[in-house]
Design goal:
With 145 residues, this protein is α+β, with helices and mostly antiparallel strands. 17% of the residues lie in helices and 32% in strands. The chain has a domain at 40-83 and 98-135: Immunoglobulin-like. Strand 6 (117-121) and strand 7 (124-130) form a beta hairpin.
């Protein structure tokens, strides 16, 4: 079987798109990080009576993380710092950077902020958010009429 490559009119645009994406990566890294540093990935799952939020925070320590909850908004703020192992080191490559972020996520319902619990394990922040009674679903029995 022979594969032939056709040169469609879109090929130059695809190349241009790749070049713009590369330029965007270079520009954001020049200003202290990329979008992933500024906005950590967040998953939110509905577990019936509670919401479970998982936030990827690799390299973060407890004293660099702040979690707050207000009505149906979860806010995670953080700061990652690195200590220089040697003051006289000459860095030849340095990709690990200090970073700060603030991320607010709208939750699907109101939660009990005073009952929220958060734990950090293996670079993942887990936040358990009990729903308010009004936000919890209830089963309604159906009667024959």
């Amino acid at each position: 079987m022979f594969l032939t490559r056709t040169n469609t009119p879109l090929v130059p645009f695809r190349r241009m798109q790749r070049e713009f994406e590369e330029l965007a990566r270079e520009l954001t890294s020049a200003f202290g990080g990329n979008g992933e540093d500024a906005f950590p990935a967040v998953n939110v799952a509905d577990q019936g009576d509670t919401l479970l939020a998982e936030v990827e925070l690799p390299g973060m320590k407890l004293d660099g993380i702040d979690v707050s909850v207000e009505r149906n908004y979860l806010t995670i703020k953080g700061q990652r710092k690195f200590e220089n192992k040697s003051d006289d080191a000459v860095w030849r490559r340095r990709e690990r950077r200090e970073a700060q972020f603030a991320r607010t996520v709208e939750l699907p319902c109101e939660v009990k902020a005073d009952k929220a619990e958060a734990t950090l394990r293996d670079g993942v922040l887990t936040v358990i958010l009990p729903k308010t009674p009004a936000a919890q679903s209830r089963r309604v029995s159906v009667k024959a009429g």
